[in-house]
Amino acid sequence: MNTGLKQIIIGSLQGISRRKTGHMPHKPEQTLNNTETGMTKSKLIDILTKKRPHLERKQVESAVDCMIEHMSAALMSNDRIEIRGFGSFSLHYHPPVTGRNPRTGAELSLPARYSTHFKPGKELRRRVNKVPGCNGEVQPNTTERG
C-alpha cells in the first residue's frame, strides 16, 4: 500500500468517537456526530472519504481493507504491531486447561489458544483520560464556571 495513503488513514483517525461500553461511565465529549455511538468499518470509510475528497470511496475502502489485511497477517505470523501514539497489538498465549461444564460438572479439556491483546499508547491514554501530559494520574477538572 502507498505509504502516503497509510499516513492519511492513520492521521485521519484522530478525533474518532469510541463506542460507549459498560466500563465507560460517560460518553466522550468530542465526537464526530452526536447521534453516532460507535465506530464501524463503514463509518470509518465514510469519515475518511469526507476528510479526503480527492480520493474516491473505492480507494479509501481498498486502503482500509489492505491495512486490516496486513495487520491480520502480521498477528497470524505472531508479529507485534505498534502504531506510535495509538497503541500496540500482540498475541497472548493461553495454555491448555482442564475445565468443568457448569451444568453437568463433567471435566472438559480446553485446548491452548491465542488471544489478541491491545495496549493503548501514551497519547491515546492521555486523550481518553483528558489528562494534560502523560504521567498516568487522573486529575480533577479545575475549570471554573461562572
Automatic annotation (TrEMBL):
Signal peptide as annotated in the record: none
Xref: InterPro entries: Hist_DNA-bd (IPR000119), IHF-like_DNA-bd_dom_sf (IPR010992)
Keyword RNA-binding: no
Chain intervals for the UniProt region annotation (Disordered): 18-37
SUPFAM superfamilies, A to Z: IHF-like DNA-binding proteins (SSF47729)
Example of a GO cellular component annotation carried by this entry: cytosol
Entry annotated with the keyword DNA-binding: yes
CDD domains assigned: IHF_B (cd13836)
A Pfam family of this chain: Bac_DNA_binding
Domain of life: Bacteria
Alphabetic keyword roster: DNA-binding
Family affiliation: Belongs to the bacterial histone-like protein family.
Protein name (record): Integration host factor beta subunit
Species annotation: Methylobacter tundripaludum
